Every structure is written in C-alpha cells, then in structure tokens.
Amino acid sequence: MTMVRVDLRRQFEDAGSRADPSPVYAGLRDLGSVLRSKDILGGGFLLPRYEEVSQVIKDPRFASDRRNVGRRSLDQWWTPGMLRLLLSSMVLKDPPEHRRLRNLVQKAFTPCRVAKLAGRVEEITDELLDAAAAKPVIELVGDLALPLPLTVIAEMLGVPPADRIRFRTLFASIQSNSQTTAVSLARNYRRMRELTTFLQELVRLRRDQPGDDLLSDLVHVEEGGDRLDDDELISMVFLLLFAGHETTVNLIGNGVLELVRRPDQLRKLRDDPGLIDTAIEEMLRFINPVGFVAPRFAKEDVEIAGTPIRRGSMVTLLIASANLDETVFPDADTLDITRSPNRHVSFGLGTHFCLGAPLARLEARIAVPALLRRFDHLELAVPADQLPWRRHIALRGVERLPLVVTPAGASASRRTA
Ligand code: HEM
Hints:
Oligomer: single chain
Strand content: 5-15%
Bound molecules: protoporphyrin IX containing FE
Keywords: Heme, Iron, Metal-binding, Monooxygenase, Oxidoreductase
C-alpha cells in the first residue's frame, strides 16, 4: 500500500500556518485517517482525525515508553543530567511505573487543593491587571498570561518569597529562548543546570522545613510505604513546570486574542458571564495550545482504520487536528462560546490525561472575566497578521499581544465630563 508522506515541521514553517493552522489540519484530515510522517523524531505514523486519535490515546496496545517496545531509550550515558530527569518523567512512562508516580503526585495535587487556590489566583490576577491598567496599551502575554501561571506555580511549590524573582527570571529565560524539545533544552544547558540546582536546594529546604505547599507534600508523600526519591522529585517538578506553564500561557493569550477578534462572542460573554465555563472549553478546543501529545509506540502488530501498524512503530496523535474535525464538531472552524457538548481532547484522554487540567481551567476562568471586568473595551493594537507566533512544533502560542484598552467606567466618565 502506498501512503501519503507528511513532513509536519514543513507544514508549519510559514508564519501564516502558525497563526492559523486550521487549513493545514483540514488538509491532513482530507488525506486520510493514517498518514506516514516523515520527520518527527525519526518518522512513523500520523493520525489527524478525531476517531483514531481518541481511540489510540486510550488503547493499552500502545506504549508511551519507547523502551517497552524494544526501542533504544533517548536517555544515554552522555545525556545531560537534567535532560535525563525530564526524559524520566511520568508522561513518558507506562503502567505500572506510571501509575506509581501518578498516585504519589495525585495525592498532593487534588482538585480540592487546586480549588483552594482560587482566592490567591484572583489576587495575583488583580495585582497584574493593576500594573497593566496604568498603560494605554497593554501587552497581554507579558502583563498577564505569562506571569500569572508562573507566580501561581512558584507559590504552589513553596518557593520562598525572597527567591521568587530569581525563580521566575530563571524559568522565563529558559522558556523565552526555547521550548520543550530535547535539542532546544540541551542548548539551554547552563540555565537548566541553574534551575536544577535551585530546585534541589528547595527540596532540601522543604525536607527540613515543610510548609503548606505542593513540594512539601511531594517530599513527604507516602503511598503504601513508597515515596519519591530525590531524582523523581525533581523530575516531577520539571514536568509540572514544563507541561503546565507555556500551555496555560497559550490558553490565556490565544484565547483572549480569538475573543478580541470576534466582537460578537466577546459581547456575548460580557452580557452573560455565566458562559465562562463553556467559553473556556471552546477556547481549549479552538485555539489548540498543544498540537500533539507525546508519541505512542505499538506494543504489538495492530491495525488502525485498516492500516497495519507494525510492533515498535511510532504514532503521532494530532489532538489539535482532532479538535477541528467536522465529523464531531459542527462548524468546527467557528469559535462558539456556547458550544455544548464539547468533547475536545486538548488535555488528552486516558492514562496520561492532564494532571493540571483543573489548575489551567481555574486560572483561565479567573483571568479572562477579570480582564473583561477591568476594561470596557479591548482592541488589537496591531493588525492580526503582524502578531508574532512562537516557533514551536508542538505548542501554539502568540508571543506578544498588544491591546488598546479602555478602563471600565472611563468611557462613561468621559461622556459625563
Ligand atoms: C491549557 C493548559 C494545558 C494543556 C492544554 C495541557 C495539555 C496536556 C496534555 C494534552 C497532556 C497529555 C500528554 C500525553 O498524553 O502524552 C498533559 C499531561 C500532563 N499535564 Fe497538562 N496541560 C495543561 C496544563 C497543565 C498544568 C497547569 C499542569 C501542572 C501544573 C500540567 C501538568 C501535566 C502533567 C503532569 C501531565 C502528565 C500526566 C501523566 O503522564 O499522567 N498540565 N497535559
């Protein structure tokens, strides 16, 4: 059987496709259910449609750990230590190893603990908006979308107040120079090493002086006599930082951009703030903060939509494309903040379903309405086609979002003056 070969990296080379990937994904879905991918981490198969993505992601015949299908581990003797820590994180593991790690962290990462953060997330949001509101043009990513999740995670981890600026600067410098690919992380070797040392010191501190924070919980968590060793702890913190930060930045940044570009949807949300839950779910579906999940590997010979997939083959699941599949989402290319049901797969599904989904949702549910309450009017300060987008193959994010704003009440006071 001949199969279409797709070079995903090429597809997103031009700025237009990064700004609006939906024609690329539509083209891929038109090509078929199972495509051959040319270059992603050594080639394999590419699944662009909802049906196959949502099945394979939950299919126990596929592994997330390449070693379980006889592939060489990416972790070699020459792999830098902190990269090794990232490669050993639970997102790249299978049960029972994965279950063990997830159980240990889940205990400390309960929805109840996340819900308790609401008040603090509101305070941080207000402080950031106070600082931004003094300007006639705000830059939504730098002023709100980026610092909000970073401050929240720093506080959750129990970074002492005196060290927070150092932590934020260190982490933000890694983020802005690169993203999460192995090559780009290696390039940031020195900064990553500093971050590792910083976190190791923090672990020591929280071991000696536990506080009411996630890291203290992780340090002391025990499940049936089992606990995380120091490397597992740092690996877990790295995963929380890298899986959780830029994704949330993109949810808020891209989400606000799409609202601002659609005044009818923006007006609807202003008129009925109760729509925020469906609005956030629709943003997650439509703006696709994550293009594809960690690769899966066939543990045995399987067939997907009639295509034989040999044991050991790598499969890339395009969750962003699945979210735009017309067969599941009517008018998939339209942002509809009232859409319900909305079975998007932006947080994945099954074993590796996003651990931080409640936190990401909480932050977006607080940040977006706070922004709308603070400003009566929001408008792009530059034409949409001039906005810069991150060059990242898996994550989609607007890099800067300048907005001309009118503070709440200012237009009324101008009218009465
Ligand atoms: C809009 C924001 C976010 C999106 C779109 C997102 C998306 C995802 C996706 C698609 C996966 C599944 C990966 C796979 O199947 O290979 C995942 C896993 C994960 N996410 Fe998120 N995420 C977000 C925010 C967060 C946050 C805030 C945190 C924590 C602070 C977090 C922590 C994790 C962890 C630890 C995993 C691995 C779970 C496991 O392997 O069992 N994520 N995320």
